[in-house]
Amino acid sequence: MNDPILLVEDDDAIATVIVTALEGEGYSVDRCPAIAERDTLLAANTYAAMLTDVILEDGDGIASLGRVREAHPNMPIIVLSAQNTLDTAVRASENEAFEYFPKPFDLDDLIRAVRQAAGSSPSDETGAGEADSTLPLVGRSQAMQGVFRMITRVLRNDLTVLVLGESGTGKELVAEAIHQLGSRKTGPFVAVNAAAIPRDLIESELFGHEKGAFTGAVGQAIGKFEQANGGTLFLDEIGDMPIEAQTRLLRALQSGRIRRIGGRQDVAVDVRIVAATNRDLSPLIASGQFREDLFYRLNVVPIELPPLRARRDDIGSLTNHFLAQAEEDGLPRRRIAEDAIKLLEQQPWRGNVRELRNLIYRLALMARDDVIDLALASEIIGRERDGTVAAGSGSVEQAMMDWIERESPAPGALYRAASAAFEKPLFEHALRVTGGNQLRAAELLGINRNTLRKRLAELGIVAEAFSIRG
């Protein structure tokens, strides 16, 4: 018979499943539904591990773990919770939980964790501090639970993290959460977007420069590495970094030292690196555009963010989160009808969470009363499609052929005329879903911000007209 396990769970159905599974593995299991009974059992028995729910009959299962730790410092604790938020996952981590499982969980994974816990002791590291109830990441879907669990696993160490995901999925929010909840939270958080900096300036931006290092260097400048010393440096869109800068970045990561452009001495820096990209780095490595050794240096702990279309169950909670955020930003208080949320859940969301946020801000601004109803949501979403190629009634090729037949451009002008006709609504769509933010629009389009600005001027598009504040 294996060592006994204590299960603290007030849901009879879930408890029966867990007890049956563990007893089938040879464990003896004591089960109770409340904190008071838990404490009585712990006072009278020794357990190889404890499994506990969060919301119990007589209180918060995590909040009361402090006295359990004092009495049983070496007993592994596995937290189970239907409160599937990043806040819950972080609280479990702060209380040195051996593992955290959001409900519903995979029973095989739980059994595996119990086996490991029964022969292990928890870390003796101290907690990361009080959890922030206003954490920016929202979602209870299974896809996001995996993200939350990965975040909690890197809070007490300085391992390099590579965040992967499409534009608009919230990669910078993951970086901020790792910083705000981790051991470096008292240090600076510095973000730099490799795609938004001209190629000839990115090394100076990262490493700084000395006076006279190049034309225009009228004084010494401190780079992002030094600015982030003692904290976290977030390298966004790392896949767009020029190969020359990649070489210097790799050297800095390997040595923990940087040298300003034009400088003669190395400067020691102590930073945690979180990098992110919306690109598949494998073909870039194969074509020589991204260093393979740098990829392995960055890809220590990969965290992949799901697109919004893969977590539609989160759209309702995200919508309410953004409505509250909009109110804090000065927009009227709104709530949204259930049928309007259903409509949102059916949208393609190519711009992901960022697109949803901007839409919710516009809905909050345009609503005629306190409730955002289906009619308004349908109207605003319909406007989003105006000026873009329809996706349901025919292909892009057919739409272009229809345009050529209708407009009949002059010989020799077909390419220029067609490019302008289809490029303008594409740019307008990107500005619309990003609320007029040119940097984010450029990221969505996959082009340089300077290129976007130039084309906007040539096409006569005013970015400010697409601002979410009208």
TrEMBL record:
PROSITE patterns xref list: RESPONSE_REGULATORY, SIGMA54_INTERACT_1, SIGMA54_INTERACT_2, SIGMA54_INTERACT_4
InterPro entries documented for this protein: AAA+_ATPase, AAA_lid_NorR, CheY-like_superfamily, Homeodomain-like_sf, HTH_Fis, P-loop_NTPase, Sig_transdc_resp-reg_receiver, Sigma_54_int
Domain Sigma-54 factor interaction residues, every copy: 137-365
Region (Disordered): 116-135
Entry keyword set: Activator, ATP-binding, Cytoplasm, DNA-binding, Nitrogen fixation, Nucleotide-binding, Phosphoprotein, Repressor, Transcription, Transcription regulation, Two-component regulatory system
Superkingdom of this protein's organism: Bacteria
Compartments where located: Cytoplasm
4-aspartylphosphate found at: 53
Sample GO molecular function, one term: sequence-specific DNA binding
Response regulatory domain boundaries: 4-118
Any one GO biological process: regulation of DNA-templated transcription
GO cellular component, one term: cytoplasm
Described function: Member of the two-component regulatory system NtrB/NtrC, which controls expression of the nitrogen-regulated (ntr) genes in response to nitrogen limitation. Phosphorylated NtrC binds directly to DNA and stimulates the formation of open promoter-sigma54-RNA polymerase complexes.
Protein known as: DNA-binding transcriptional regulator NtrC
Organism this protein belongs to: Parerythrobacter jejuensis
